[in-house]
Automatic annotation (TrEMBL):
<feature type="region of interest" description="Disordered">
    <location>
        <begin position="1"/>
        <end position="22"/>
    </location>
</feature>
<protein>
    <submittedName>
        <fullName>DUF397 domain-containing protein</fullName>
    </submittedName>
</protein>
<feature type="domain" description="DUF397">
    <location>
        <begin position="11"/>
        <end position="65"/>
    </location>
</feature>
<dbReference type="InterPro" id="IPR007278">
    <property type="entry name" value="DUF397"/>
</dbReference>
<dbReference type="Pfam" id="PF04149">
    <property type="entry name" value="DUF397"/>
</dbReference>
Length: 72
């Protein structure tokens, strides 16, 4: 698999609705790119970004919403 660079310098990051205002555990996503969902830690916006295939991210979010997980 080829290693490719995705330019996210102009991406519109959105903070998770589960994030609180005190700078705690915050996840940001970009959800308007075709076929991919970049995810990062909002406390480290210049740090690493994980990029998921959109269908895998959708499956993950659905599983979390439909599961009784502590703290969610």
């Amino acid at each position: 698999m080829a290693n490719s660079h995705i330019d996210l310098s102009t991406a519109a990051w959105r903070k998770s609705s589960y994030s609180n205002g005190d700078g705690g555990d915050c996840v940001e996503v970009v959800d308007d790119l075709p076929g991919i969902i970049p995810v990062r830690d909002s406390k480290d916006p210049h740090g690493p970004t994980i990029v998921f295939p959109a269908n895998a991210w959708s499956s993950f979010v659905s599983a979390v919403k439909n599961t009784n997980l502590p703290g969610i």
